[in-house]
Design brief:
alpha/beta; Rossmann fold; 15 helices; 42% helix; globular
């Protein structure tokens, strides 16, 4: 075990995935250091850490504490990596390399294209430097105040590339976005530096409109690897970045089960949770718990519309989490707004079972309509929601094995 100690400095770090990344990079100790602004000076002057990553809101604040700055940090005016040297802290900015990595990996051509950068914080400085070097032109910063702001955004609706560097849409306040992608008819690419959820509302709209896009997970991993090179004193190949991205995405993605009532979501969910060591979240049970009554009772008292409102509220809460097995009700696909709630951090699996094998007891809609009628109304909706379709007509463990293989 490397006896050097590193960590992440920030104000609110409960959502951070950095410790997982650095654990896959090397054997040094890496912890979270949540510090209030009034305590920042004392922390930086007294800590015995060998190095740190720096995140919101301190990327600019740590610059005066650096005895030395890398060319990138000096150019950008922001630091996200501190390494202790004999003369003091050396500051670097690996966000530049991280953002450049996701742009080049995405294949989106930004050269010579008008680009809007939402936000003017520390992350935006590194993003703008990378955009300049990759040939984006012109680059326009959008802020709350100033010449180019959210009030007069319409004068920039000819932009072709959109980049969010603000915390809008970040967990736990998912669902927000800096602008509507649909307002930019010439848009050819969307980037978001937010990495939790993996698909922000900004990216989900781009996906719906067929606009190429890339999220912040790749930037997070790439910048961490470039910091890790300095912490561990050895290079990290791009293949390692890709491997960590893939592993982290699998670990943090929810496995969301959809399908007809009685198709086996609960049984499959229980076995997957057991096999993978993940929590099982049952949307119907959560609805009953919050309502204080059974689902048939909710239908009787509030009708289907009332039940669907409750269901969407529960899915909004459950869907923003990470690393769980989420079993949904059979009709959740009938509400289009449920898709982004489930897809923001989830891989959606459609469990398929022959209609003559579906039970109806305790299922209000199944008792009112035949399975064939329900399926005819929902088939296209299941297909639209699903990332993967899985046959569940055979033994339970065969289905579970197929899901685990597909998910891996």
């Amino acid at each position: 075990m490397n006896n050097k100690r590193f960590g992440l400095l920030g104000r609110k770090l409960g959502h951070s995935w950095s410790p997982r990344i650095h654990a896959m990079l090397a054997d040094y100790d890496y912890q979270l250091y949540q510090v209030e602004p009034e305590d920042l000076d004392a922390f930086l002057r007294t800590t015995d850490l060998d190095g740190m990553n720096v995140t919101i809101p301190y990327k600019k604040d740590v610059v005066p504490y650096c005895a030395e700055l890398s060319d990138a940090a000096r150019r950008i005016g922001s630091v996200n990596t501190l390494v202790r040297t004999p003369s003091g802290w050396r500051g670097d900015n690996t966000d530049y390399a991280g953002f450049r990595y996701i742009v080049e990996r995405s294949g989106i051509d930004i050269r010579g294209k008008k680009t809007l950068v939402f936000g003017t914080g520390g992350a935006s400085l590194a993003v703008k430097a990378a955009l300049e070097d990759l040939g984006a032109d012109p680059i326009v910063s959008i802020s709350r105040t100033g010449e180019n702001n959210y009030v007069n955004l319409s004068k920039h609706h000819d932009a072709k590339i959109l980049v969010n560097t603000t915390p809008l849409g970040m967990f736990p306040d998912t669902g927000a976005a800096p602008a509507a992608v649909g307002d930019f008819p010439r848009c050819e690419g969307v980037f978001d530096v937010v990495y939790n959820p993996q698909r922000t509302a900004f990216l989900l709209e781009a996906e719906r409109l067929g606009v190429p896009h890339a999220g912040g997970l790749g930037m997070l991993v790439a910048q961490a690897c470039r910091s890790g090179e300095q912490f561990a004193g050895r290079p990290v190949p791009d293949s390692k970045i890709e491997k960590i991205m893939s592993t982290l995405s699998r670990q943090l993605s929810n496995i969301v089960l959809i399908g007809m009532p009685g198709c086996g979501k609960s049984a499959v969910g229980r076995e997957l949770a057991h096999k993978l060591g993940r929590p099982l979240l049952d949307a119907d049970k959560e609805i009953e718990k919050e309502a204080g009554m059974t689902i048939p009772a909710i239908f009787e008292a509030e009708g289907e519309a009332g039940f669907r409102r409750r269901e969407t509220a529960v899915l909004a809460r459950l869907g923003k989490g990470s690393g769980a097995i989420l079993s949904t009700g059979g009709g959740c696909v009938t509400v289009a707004d449920n898709y982004p709630l489930l897809h923001q951090n989830g891989v959606i699996l459609w469990l398929q079972r022959d209609l003559d094998k579906l039970p109806t007891a305790g299922r209000p809609l199944s008792q009112r309509s035949s399975a064939g009628t329900l399926y005819a109304r929902r088939k296209e909706k299941y297909a639209a929601f699903a990332d993967i379709a899985v046959d569940n007509n055979g033994p339970l463990m065969e289905t579970v094995s197929r899901i685990m293989e597909a998910f891996q």
